[in-house]
Amino acid sequence: MGYFDHVGTVKFEGKSSTNPLAFKFYNPDEIILGKTMREHLRFGVAYWHSFTGNGSDPFGAGTALRGWNELSGMELAKARVEACFELLNILDVDYFCFHDRDIAPEGDTLQETNRNLDEIVALIKQHMHSSGKKLLWNTANMFTNPRFVHGAATTSNADVFAYAAAQVKKALDHGKELGAENYVFWGGREGYESLLNTDLGLELDNLARFLQLAVDYAKEIGFDAQFLIEPKPKEPSKHQYDFDAATTLQFLQKYDLAKHFKLNLEANHATLAGHTFEHELRVARINGALGSIDANQGDLLLGWDTDEFPTDLYASTLAMYEILQNEGGIGRGGVNFDAKVRRTSFEPIDVVYAHINGMDAFARGLQVAAKLIEDRAFDNVIEERYASFTKGIGADIVSGKANFHTLEAYALQNNPITNKSGRVELLRSILNQYIINV
Amino acid sequence: MGYFDHVGTVKFEGKSSTNPLAFKFYNPDEIILGKTMREHLRFGVAYWHSFTGNGSDPFGAGTALRGWNELSGMELAKARVEACFELLNILDVDYFCFHDRDIAPEGDTLQETNRNLDEIVALIKQHMHSSGKKLLWNTANMFTNPRFVHGAATTSNADVFAYAAAQVKKALDHGKELGAENYVFWGGREGYESLLNTDLGLELDNLARFLQLAVDYAKEIGFDAQFLIEPKPKEPSKHQYDFDAATTLQFLQKYDLAKHFKLNLEANHATLAGHTFEHELRVARINGALGSIDANQGDLLLGWDTDEFPTDLYASTLAMYEILQNEGGIGRGGVNFDAKVRRTSFEPIDVVYAHINGMDAFARGLQVAAKLIEDRAFDNVIEERYASFTKGIGADIVSGKANFHTLEAYALQNNPITNKSGRVELLRSILNQYIINV
Amino acid sequence: MGYFDHVGTVKFEGKSSTNPLAFKFYNPDEIILGKTMREHLRFGVAYWHSFTGNGSDPFGAGTALRGWNELSGMELAKARVEACFELLNILDVDYFCFHDRDIAPEGDTLQETNRNLDEIVALIKQHMHSSGKKLLWNTANMFTNPRFVHGAATTSNADVFAYAAAQVKKALDHGKELGAENYVFWGGREGYESLLNTDLGLELDNLARFLQLAVDYAKEIGFDAQFLIEPKPKEPSKHQYDFDAATTLQFLQKYDLAKHFKLNLEANHATLAGHTFEHELRVARINGALGSIDANQGDLLLGWDTDEFPTDLYASTLAMYEILQNEGGIGRGGVNFDAKVRRTSFEPIDVVYAHINGMDAFARGLQVAAKLIEDRAFDNVIEERYASFTKGIGADIVSGKANFHTLEAYALQNNPITNKSGRVELLRSILNQYIINV
Amino acid sequence: MGYFDHVGTVKFEGKSSTNPLAFKFYNPDEIILGKTMREHLRFGVAYWHSFTGNGSDPFGAGTALRGWNELSGMELAKARVEACFELLNILDVDYFCFHDRDIAPEGDTLQETNRNLDEIVALIKQHMHSSGKKLLWNTANMFTNPRFVHGAATTSNADVFAYAAAQVKKALDHGKELGAENYVFWGGREGYESLLNTDLGLELDNLARFLQLAVDYAKEIGFDAQFLIEPKPKEPSKHQYDFDAATTLQFLQKYDLAKHFKLNLEANHATLAGHTFEHELRVARINGALGSIDANQGDLLLGWDTDEFPTDLYASTLAMYEILQNEGGIGRGGVNFDAKVRRTSFEPIDVVYAHINGMDAFARGLQVAAKLIEDRAFDNVIEERYASFTKGIGADIVSGKANFHTLEAYALQNNPITNKSGRVELLRSILNQYIINV
């Protein structure tokens, strides 16, 4: 091995370390609120960005210098497996995630493609066995190949729907084979280019049919992974059906699929939809649908998915704040780095630096969020703000005893009304103090 | 009277007229697809922009020159009623819409406020009777008064919830009194400033409670108007709960309220949420929730609600295309001009010009959309695009006969797959031709 | 030949034609304001989108079905030349534009790359000679190859600056050889990823040095093409130095380069910078810098360069309105379709449909704009609006006679001030009428 | 006094203080890079937000509870002066800033308006004398009054231009009277609503004329304040002429005004223009035009000027990083809180909390930025990145010795080229460490 400059395992050295190859905040064994950082965070490395991505963008060829650049076909696929487990070891990360097409090349036929996949899955299984690393989730790439030009489950072509079904069937088989804890659906081409040529009703009905068939098949084979849908509003499609958390939940409720799915939420997808990451997490949380996260960040002055490594401590703190308050925390999900090094950071070591950056940001976020919760820094404020709903007319509203007559009678004799400041600026000061002081 | 320069009723003069006070496209009696333009469009004038608005913005005082500028209190309120019916006559528009606080001033107590309202409602009723004009919808303004600083139904203060209930109770009474065809809920302050101090779950539960109480009360008094919710993603709140059509439907489904509500969709709110207007209309349509529209347009290079009069023929055509394809068209809803003249268009006559602009744009949109539908210009394309789902494996998918086994078997022997171009550019050329030629 | 389905030359058939392969508005010989449409518009086909582009995007492989897909190397390059001249004939378009790397493959060395280029340039010259087609502009692609990862003229690596100089030197030689009427600089990588590692001052100084060297060399070889800079605010870079028209002019003024350069303005780049296309054209026009345009359109709800074929008649009308009012019109520039068929429009014929769409949109825009000017539809309004600056105190202001003392004296006795409405809504109605009626 | 809850002077208590009325980071006497924090930061309080603003927004009335709410006219104006100096004392801030119309009410005539102003200016002068507080800058509000509906210096009405001149003349007199260190021009209405009715060339010429007259008058009266222009891209106008730093510099260069003006840059204006704050500061810095800053922050998911108190430590650090590297630091400028408490933070004490929040954020930013500079944390990286321009071919490029011939010769023999990673992720990790550790 040695795809990443023969770097040894990155260790925790504390916040003042000047060693670029050390963790400053991520201490896997540190206990926070009764669990280790490792258990809270369940970090995952994303196969596509770190082993398949090459730094290309719409205006430029790949820049990434990688030890496998000269390889191709199955040889390349095998090298990437080596590289993946090398990086997991360097980072001391337990999980990884992949699309089927990340790990093995397509063949001329679906049969050949599946044989390629089977071979690499077997190899990955060996590595998992020997290393103890685990599969956080797998998924099927149904957006890269030109056959999915009009969508997969929402294609206008029934042949493509059938192909997509076959592909997901195989991916579910492989997920089971590798003991995946989750299975993700991200519909990069499940959307439309123009309403002028789109039968929106049929496409959404078909998407629901597809998901139900996947649920049925997983049950049939006894694959008990948590199914996750990953919302994104746009890109590559002009409009994508799983626009954001609320839209996805609306769809799942309408088609009676909500009980089978949770959400895999991504920071950059949230901001593209006009939301903060913590908003999406909160929406999922209060609907019992917070499943897993794709940790990255966007550039809010850019209008596309930049998939940067997460470094903003506000975002990581508020994300962990939602996760810690979620029943069971992140549960079977994890913190998957759906993030890529910048095209200008093209050396292998940058991949290591970038993961350290992201892991430290989330570790710090975990520390800060845990302290905020322990101290009830915001909880006390919220409890007091809504106290009026725990007694008198407020309690009647919540319990269902009040109606428009009783409420009007109350209002007519209750003059004037006094509100209290929301104190946002003070709360933000407190957040800054916690980020620095914890 | 004479608030609008003693302009007589605006007449249709045809598309080549150079009379700025004539309709070029809106011919109320022209029959389109079996109904008159008047019946299709059911235009409404918005009280707040045309009679209460004064051209102020966050950086400047009102500029509007209006005949009622020297008045105040109930005298002002009465003058505005006169002005409203004058403008309806000038424009030959049948409907108007108002918030309770548009039509009458608040008093020192809710009792006094209600008395003011009762008096103006009685005056409006007289004018409706004598003129034959009708109330498209009314609504309660629960965002301007400081008491609603933290929301109305989603306030942190139970006293405010009670006040809001009393206010909506009165508004429902008035809606019934005036024979309103719809009643609208727009929650300008139903949202949050910061998640740091917000109990999102409680606020949404309370919103559902509030809406159910309104449904119950309307039933009790026999007010059978269509209830409508108007989505908007942000502004004034940082985040508003009724973000867009899908989010609002998710909420309604979750709380079992969907059967009682449809949507009142606004163009500028759609674009602020990152959607085209036709997208929002389509989403509502396929969910049986297209209730009414607020006709205006935003400036997509500006990030706030500009509420411009709708002039873009693409937008008006595609909006009418969705409405014509909606079962029952716009139904009990209408095309309400939630639009204001620019602050720089401050003369009374600009209000007339602006409505002519908007009515002509929608009339032209109706003509174009009707012809597109009659000619099946897009329908034939769509039918052919999705033809594979009407036979063979596609029919099996739609009927529920297919499963992952049969689909995989099909896919394994079906190589290669052939897709067809979506032809977006050609369809756009056709749309241009229709807009010019119809 | 036959890369485009053996389509014959597209003819003008008039606005009611239902022939998808006919022009509805573009009639090359129609006289408008004393010149033919052909002379006004000087349409160009963009080599990169129509012959080199393949429909790939960051999430998917190329979908384009093209007759040259099986070819590679110089054989591919030659096929594309054939295809280019075939399409120019089909569309009856006089001009084309290319980057050096569009037309010939890079070799292992710059020497080999240049030999490849020379060979294809010779082939293109033959085709130009036999067909009479002309080169609107050429340019150097200094953004695709990984060597330009940190920029070309603004790189942090002097070796790359030297390479870029060598590349532009060759491109200027080829421009002269082919009689290019313009030469374009678009700096896709001339910008920064992060200020943390960027010496902004040095990079901009070097950009100025580079441009001066290019000016010097062109003069030396007697290449008298108009030099053009094409602004774009971002993408691929996080920030690009030629952000918009004003920023580019600031740079040119600062480094005393303004006399040597005009601007090549693109609609989609304008909207990415937060401007309308007509704004950018107006800014260039009043600074004597309107050189040429890249005709396309963006999707204002998407945050990246979609490079759609221009179809919006408002945009094409207002663009042509600026061009017609520019001294000398588009001059030596032209209307280059820097536009690509959607990934879902992957058949060769879509390229033809798309250009017809764009040419018709601009032809209609030209007709409408010319009529607006002939009728002084807006000019009369403007003349009257600013009339106060032609007499009295206004004339003193413009002539420089007024000062703060005389102005104060005037203001103190001039009370109240009366303004007139800007009439925007009425002007928009008039614009709609012209678009439909002309 | 006692407009702010009789709060005593806020003291520095250190980063672990839980006293909401103490500074955690701002220690005015702490020495950083040889100067006190007080000298570096030169904080200013903005009259308009803190004493004139009332918490209203386009959808709601003012919510602010203030001790002067019952007053009006000159009595109100005088109370606000008291409140201003009270707050300056509470915060131990040395500077304040105002628009003419913030401090005194307009009368029926310009004469009366000026008398009101004179009276309050005299009162302010007394307070300044007794308290030692200073005027960072004053400015003229030429956007609120309806007379400026079409602009002030860029109006279409010469009478308005004259009025604006008279207003600025008075403001310059008052600036001199109070010893203002700067004078600011922010052109809220200097822009356009629509190009359809706008003579862009004349408006910009007039703007230049106006500024030159102001320069001339200031010279005449011996007012030696630094003149500053404050860019903003839009809002309230659809387009504002001083769009961003580069656009403003282009204008100043074109009209030969650059030597008389520097820029007053605002964070929220930067982001509305699509830039980071640090970008705008850097652009100003390398052009010798960094004059002063308006410290606030926007919400990048909202499209309007939210003017939030600055709390983001990344932004405050990178702003101070630019200022520290500017020759002379902030110079005669300062850090003015052009920021308002949220409408939901309506109690007087929130104004104090909010300023503490902002002052601490900038104090921390100053500490972090100073340490980054002392340690050359980024400077070393930059020096190494651009080292190739200090020798060999790079030195020839910079010195002007190289030309296209010598560069081509060099490039032809220099194969392959090797670039180095830009290391953005690592640099971001380092920034996080500094923010936490300093």
From TrEMBL, chains A, B, C, D:
Annotated binding of Ca(2+) 1, by residue: G191, E203
Enzyme class: isomerase
Protein residues bound to Ca(2+) 2: E230, E266, D294, D338
Domain Xylose isomerase-like TIM barrel: 143-281
EC numbers for this chain: 5.3.1.5
Cofactor: Mg(2+)
Assembly with partners or alone: Homotetramer.
Protein name, entry field: Xylose isomerase
